[in-house]
């Protein structure tokens, strides 16, 4: 898809469809006013006839309007002028794409970018527009054999955004550059998460990582740490999780070097990559068990982010770890009651093999210390308790550093990708007490998201760290199940912000 920015002159535009917004007060803005004038008051007549009220999210599809250069027009109700905010603006794009999907249009011009929204400049209007359009057009059809169903749902090849000034053209074009790279990375991430677990296993993730480095040979290199390497390193907690599976654990390390300046921050991203979580011996109930293929969403997010920074050539040094494993039931599976010695030397008494994510992550948190990281983020579908506490709208954040949480919150405010901080009070740590090992791997059935993060924090003492529990936000459950690509928007913005402020 090609995106363009253009200034107001309708005469110059060759587009199959124009998309306009009209507020409830019926004060038409510049371009739609021009359409109204050229068509002898066609739009005002519609309003007078009460065919259109301007109510929020109302839509009207028009064609063959006299004297108008484009054959089709979509009018979208914007509601009350003062109520238009980023969320509503995004919804207008979703509504437009629902209509557009059913039409054969090649080029579209959006005038929604002309709408005034308090606190949001043209850069963000274009970023949000691209993000909503690409999300709304996404579908995962890799395994449909019927060619009709497989066919891409839209024919659109270019989209124009209308802006007022030459300065807006510069900002808009910059937004296109960032928006496109982020959408591309989000699509890669969603595709990876949506893959079935019989194909997407730890080896598959490693193969994808190698492919990524081949696409960006100037800045990305890969290290694969296999089962034997991990055993040699003493990563016993990590390797134990994969013991019940024939698909052995494999850790793919994606190194991105975007700067040779050694004052640039080293950031490490760790993604939980459990390609299928059956729960192990503490087996899960079978309802919706198919959705446990999404338990590698943390790894797919890290993968998407690595592609975004490489695409944008951000001046950062970033290491992404895909911590892949499969938690299965077998004669070699680890057991409740087992005591594992982690890479850090600390011992863990296993009380539930389904709390496997933290066992993988604790060893990776120790492993990444060798990179001398300034910041470590882990991203994981870690606990059902996160879904109970925050639902599917908000990613849980737990951290040992207030400034880092503030930086994440800023990226969240910018993008609308919601997060909420949960506390790591010392009281919670007691829930992990074991009478025979240094700690247990689960708490006591309450505050499960927090006790999981307490467990991780025991292994993240040497650097600034945050844990993102994406169990509720990473995928949509049920009949229309599928990856959301969250929190790519949040974290790509976090990395962009870091790259602008990257000197220690
Ligand atoms: N992958 C799951 C967490 C999960 C559950 C994510 C449901 C999304 C939806 C994780 O490995 C797990 O099984 N966690 C257990 C921990 C418990 C045994 C302390 C859980 O949340 O039930
Ligand atoms: Zn899991
Ligand atoms: Mg589990």
Walkthrough of the structure:
This protein starts with a strand and ends with a helix. The chain is built from 16 helices and 19 strands. It has 504 residues and is an alpha/beta fold. The relative contact order is 0.11. The radius of gyration is 25 Å and the shape is elongated. The strands form 4 sheets. An 8-stranded mixed beta sheet has the order 7-8-10-9-13-17-14-15, with helices on both faces. Strands 1-6-5-2-4-3 form a 6-stranded mixed beta sheet. Bound molecules: ligand BES, zinc ion and magnesium ion.
Question: Topology of this structure?
Answer:
Layout: E1 2-7, E2 17-22, H1 30-38, H2 42-48, E3 59-63, E4 72-77, H3 86-100, E5 107-110, H4 122-137, H5 147-150, E6 158-163, H6 166-194, H7 202-215, E7 220-225, H8 227-233, H9 236-241, E8 250-257, E9 266-277, H10 297-312, E10 317-327, E11 339-341, E12 347-349, H11 357-367, E13 375-380, H12 384-390, E14 395-399, H13 402-415, E15 419-421, H14 426-429, E16 439-440, H15 448-457, E17 464-469, E18 475-476, E19 482-483, H16 488-500
Parallel strand pairs: 1-6, 2-4, 2-5, 5-6, 9-10, 9-13, 12-16, 13-17, 14-15
Antiparallel strand pairs: 3-4, 7-8, 8-10, 11-12, 14-17, 18-19
């Amino acid at each position: 898809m090609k995106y363009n920015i253009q200034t107001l002159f309708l005469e110059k535009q060759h587009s199959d469809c124009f998309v306009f917004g009209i507020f409830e007060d019926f004060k038409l803005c510049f371009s739609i006013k021009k359409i109204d004038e050229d068509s002898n008051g066609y739009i005002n007549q519609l309003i007078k006839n009460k065919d259109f009220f301007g109510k929020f999210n109302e839509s009207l599809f028009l064609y063959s309007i006299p004297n108008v250069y484009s054959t089709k027009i979509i009018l979208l109700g914007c509601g009350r002028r003062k109520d238009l905010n980023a969320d509503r603006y995004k919804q207008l794009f979703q509504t437009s794409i629902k209509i557009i999907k059913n039409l054969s249009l090649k080029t579209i011009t959006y005038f929604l970018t002309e709408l005034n929204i308090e606190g949001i400049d043209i850069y963000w209007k274009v970023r949000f527009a691209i993000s909503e359009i690409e999300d709304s057009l996404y579908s995962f059809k890799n395994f449909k054999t019927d060619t009709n169903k497989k066919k891409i749902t839209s024919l659109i090849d270019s989209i124009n955004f209308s802006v007022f000034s030459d300065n807006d053209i510069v900002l808009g074009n910059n937004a296109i550059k960032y928006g496109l790279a982020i959408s591309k990375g989000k699509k890669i991430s969603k595709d990876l998460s949506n893959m079935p677990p019989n194909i997407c296993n730890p080896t598959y993730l490693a193969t994808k990582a190698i492919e990524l480095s081949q696409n960006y040979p100037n800045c990305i290199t890969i290290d694969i740490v296999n089962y034997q390497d991990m055993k040699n390193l003493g990563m016993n907690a990590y390797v134990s999780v994969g013991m019940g599976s024939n698909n052995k654990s494999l850790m793919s390390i994606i190194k991105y070097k975007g700067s040779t300046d050694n004052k640039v921050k080293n950031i490490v991203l760790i993604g939980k990559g459990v390609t299928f979580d059956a729960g192990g011996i503490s087996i899960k109930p079978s309802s919706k068990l198919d959705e446990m293929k999404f338990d590698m969403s943390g790894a797919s997010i890290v993968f998407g982010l690595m592609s975004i920074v490489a695409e944008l050539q951000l001046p950062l040094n970033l290491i992404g770890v895909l911590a892949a494993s499969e938690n299965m039931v077998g004669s070699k599976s680890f057991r409740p009651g087992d005591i594992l010695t982690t890479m850090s030397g600390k011992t863990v008494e296993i009380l539930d093999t389904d709390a496997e994510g933290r066992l993988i992550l604790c060893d990776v948190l120790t492993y990444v210390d060798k990179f001398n990281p300034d910041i470590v983020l882990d991203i994981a579908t870690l606990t059902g308790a996160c879904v109970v506490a925050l639902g599917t709208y908000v990613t849980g954040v737990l951290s040992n550093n207030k400034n880092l949480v503030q930086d994440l919150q800023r990226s969240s405010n910018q993008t609308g990708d919601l997060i909420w901080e949960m506390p790591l009070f010392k009281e919670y740590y007691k829930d992990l007490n074991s009478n025979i090992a240094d700690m247990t791997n689960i708490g006591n059935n309450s505050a499960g998201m927090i006790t999981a993060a307490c467990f991780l924090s025991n292994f993240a003492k040497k650097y600034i760290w945050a844990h993102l529990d994406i169990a509720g936000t990473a995928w949509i459950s049920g009949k229309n199940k599928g990856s959301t690509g969250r929190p790519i928007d949040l974290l790509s913005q976090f990395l962009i912000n870091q790259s602008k402020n990257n000197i220690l």
